[in-house]
Amino acid sequence: MRVLHKYLIVILSSVFIFLGVNAEEVYFDLSEDNIEIKTDFDGKEVIIFGLLQNDHDTLLTIKGPLSKMKIQKKERYFGVWINNKQITYSKIPTLFFLSSTNMIDDILPNSIQINDDLNFDKILNNKTFDQNFIFENDQEIWNENFVRIKKKQLFYKEFEMKTFKDKLFQTSVFFPPNTIPGVYYVDIYYIKHKTIMNKDQKKIVVRKTGIGSDIYEFARNRAATYGVFVIIFSILSGLIAATLFRRG
């Protein structure tokens, strides 16, 4: 993979020189913009590369799809642990990758980070939510735990951004095996004096293929019918296993 990266940079440099691409133009590209999830899918690495701009910092984010997401807390009642407290956040990116030439807190103020959703540590600051309990000065702790869980699952992750001769940048991001299908938005920002001066966007489409895709679409579009089939299949599997066990 490292050899591939070196060849990629050499090719990019040659192409830019040949085409006379202006260093002030917004340009970046992806090694691939379609990811197929098959039954043996174990994750996918995508290489993102492009031009730097003179005297600008570069910030790259990958987000999506948006979804309602829940965090729960177990409490013990009469010797039994149950999920008693929970918060449901609305319109939260299921995946959020970040890469930049400098620390984001050094190149952008908190207001822009929050308004544009550019930092997963602040992603919940302007999101609506529902909870089934009253906060006791611990809302920030709940938010921190949510982000910590997403980081542990590799859905929220910061990747290194490499630069080459102050002309090119390149980063490699890894979509984990349990990535959900959908459209993922890749945004690049050029920043100067703590202000976003220029930006561009591309998309990565993640989709299931094969029989896994058919099952996924059926379960999503006909949830009730799928649930009945699962119950019937479980009962039949139990009966078959019991019969084989008796014969054995």
Structure, briefly:
The protein is of the alpha+beta class and 248 residues long. It contains 6 helices and 11 strands.
Write the layout of secondary structure elements.
Layout: H1 2-19, E1 28-30, E2 34-37, E3 44-51, E4 57-77, E5 80-100, H2 104-107, H3 110-115, E6 129-131, H4 139-152, E7 156-158, E8 162-164, E9 168-175, E10 182-192, E11 195-208, H5 211-221, H6 223-247
Parallel strand pairs: 2-11, 5-7
Antiparallel strand pairs: 1-3, 3-9, 4-5, 4-10, 5-6, 8-9, 10-11
Describe the structure.
- The chain has 248 residues and is α+β, with helices and mostly antiparallel strands.
- It has 2 domains: 2-208, Macroglobulin (MG2) domain (Immunoglobulin-like, Sandwich), CATH 2.60.40; 210-248.
- The chain has helices at residues 2-19, 104-107, 110-115, 139-152, 211-221, 223-247; strands spanning 28-30, 34-37, 44-51, 57-77, 80-100, 129-131, 156-158, 162-164, 168-175, 182-192, 195-208.
- Helix 5 packs across helix 6.
- The longest helix is centred in the C-terminal third of the chain and has 25 residues, at 223-247.
- The N and C termini lie far apart (51 Å).
- Which secondary-structure class do the elements indicate? alpha+beta
**Total tally of structural domains:** 2
Roughly what fraction of the amino acids lie in strands?
A: 35-45%
| Percentage of residues assigned to helices | 25-40%
Q: Give the rounded overall mean pLDDT.
A: 83
Query: How does the overall form come out from the CA principal axes?
Result: flat
CATH architecture of the largest domain: Sandwich
Taking the sheet with the most strands, its summary is: 7 strands, mixed
Number of helices: 6
Quick one: CATH superfamily of the largest domain?
Macroglobulin (MG2) domain
- Taken in chain order, the helices and strands follow as HEEEEEHHEHEEEEEHH
Fill in the CATH topology of the largest domain.
Immunoglobulin-like
Separation of termini? 51 Å
At the first level of CATH, the class of the largest domain is Mainly Beta
What would you report as the Rg, rounded to the nearest angstrom? 23 Å
Ranges where pLDDT stays below 50 over 5 or more residues in a row are none
The total strand number stands at 11
